[in-house]
Amino acid sequence: MAHSLLARYPWVASPFVVSAPMKVMSGPALAVAVSRAGGLGFIGPGAKTQDTTNDLEKASTLIANTIPTTSALPVGVGYQLWADDVGIAVAAIEKYKPCAVWLYAPKQGSQDYNDWSSRIRKASPETQIWIQIGTLKEAKQLLQLSESPDVVVVQGAESGGHGRANDSMGLMSLFPEVADVMASSRIPLFAAGGIADGRGLAAAMCLGASGAVMGTRFLAASEARISRGYQDEVVRASDGAVSTTRTLLYNHLRGTFGWPEEYSPRTIVNQSYVEQQQGKSFEELKVLHDEAAKAGDEGWGPTGRLATYAGASVGLIHDVKNAGDIVRETRNGALERLQQLFPHKN
Amino acid sequence: MAHSLLARYPWVASPFVVSAPMKVMSGPALAVAVSRAGGLGFIGPGAKTQDTTNDLEKASTLIANTIPTTSALPVGVGYQLWADDVGIAVAAIEKYKPCAVWLYAPKQGSQDYNDWSSRIRKASPETQIWIQIGTLKEAKQLLQLSESPDVVVVQGAESGGHGRANDSMGLMSLFPEVADVMASSRIPLFAAGGIADGRGLAAAMCLGASGAVMGTRFLAASEARISRGYQDEVVRASDGAVSTTRTLLYNHLRGTFGWPEEYSPRTIVNQSYVEQQQGKSFEELKVLHDEAAKAGDEGWGPTGRLATYAGASVGLIHDVKNAGDIVRETRNGALERLQQLFPHKN
């Protein structure tokens, strides 16, 4: 890992573990717990951009100088560019100075990235710009930005939540190809998608990553801002290849519209999806969904109907743990694996 | 890697590199060159099962005791169970005693595996049984076989040629989940799909693999039994996520029918696929395909129409090399990566 990268995040232990900015579910408690354990925690986008500002305030209070750092706040924050208000976001960044801002899903690719990045850097020079991509084409576009990102996250097809709809690929092929194209930029790359333990972190590093981002694993963290029914389902589900799929159905059932068409979320399938495949109309599914939403935690699970965004790594997750334990076990798992594989010269 | 595994293949150097049994294209010259370089080369299925017998005869002549080994022939051989004749295959295995037989794509899952395995073991006790799977469900079925395989190859969605049609997943999530389910069996696992260099091999080992299988990388080996036009296209293609797709179209254009419905091949897309997506009829595409087939090497490439089965790793392959160099560079690349990442204790 580049020495300069760790220098920007002085509380982070190697290998570098990051918790993804999952919308609403990555709240300040989760982000702070991850950073406190020597990872880098990201606060996710809120239902409204102002909610994220409130989360930064809470994180700032929670941290209260308990994590040794530079002048920046030792948590990051994520925004969805197509949906978030850049003015509100930049005001929050200027006030709270998060160490990193994660930009994703622009409406107008390069233009949005340059605009957000230049405004963020003016407001908070100590804040690093992270951009998440999922294709080689995006990697090439990043190389042309006037405002070059500090870190690029490469998301594979295994990922949960929103990822590329039709042009994604597993990290095993995607990551090294992106790494080769971006090598000359010397921008550190992180791997995201399908990673849930130290094996995946070590594998990502072998592919060229400076560290790994985990989302789904942290849905089963005790600090996640998530309903019990949803979290139970992440723990229960296995065989991610068939128990999850990419579909816009659950966005639409929840009334979420407007994502740029390049994106589609991976979710654990349940009755809503099964019955859609069987031909039930959206109108019928919507009525049943809204009834299920009133049922609370019973609304999730194989016979449930509520959105359960999660990645293909669900089968690697068997329990709810403290975020700090997840960070430490992932880091130690990767170290142990690399030590076991170390080729002793004869 | 299990010591007992390497003991079965005494000429193999660690980390363990395998060339996949690609139909027709993995001929005896390729398989022998891979084993000669300290890997394990597999001869692929032929157009007819008898062709494979002839390939084993050629490999046996080529080797002529030049590779230090046990009593078994230091190359493997692959069969497609739905298409190959078990009687002809077992007779060849009895005569040539390949060190490993790779079984794939049965019509009747467990029954076919047990039948082939018991007959092979009776005919050639020194031959090890390798079985390739692509799903967690298959992994669980293997655990119930009366004839337990010696090695299991776990193929991810990134793979080229025939893989799972609708229930595959990238290795980053699939492999560790399969490894956990199979851990109690202590059967060594190999990773296949999307791996084309030492980074992928090292990553696979971190996920728990005893070694890696590469197919597409060896299509661009000088010893591959492949048309120049096809090979040039593997070298040319990049951005495997969008330049390749799974489709049955090319099988059907070539007159190949009968694969069990669970399987579908990944191929580099060209005019046949593009025009199918635009609505051109199969009959028209077939006429154009057959004309292109007469054009020889011009029939491949972006404006070509011929089947170009290949994996999502095409973007990592930039030149044709000797198979021995591919094996050595992959192995050394993995060793270097693992040495770089070795966590020195403070």
UniProtKB/TrEMBL annotation, chains A, B:
GO terms for molecular function: nitronate monooxygenase activity. CDD domains: NPD_like. Pfam families: NMO. InterPro entries: Aldolase_TIM, NMO. Keywords: Flavoprotein, FMN, Oxidoreductase. This is Nitronate monooxygenase domain-containing protein.
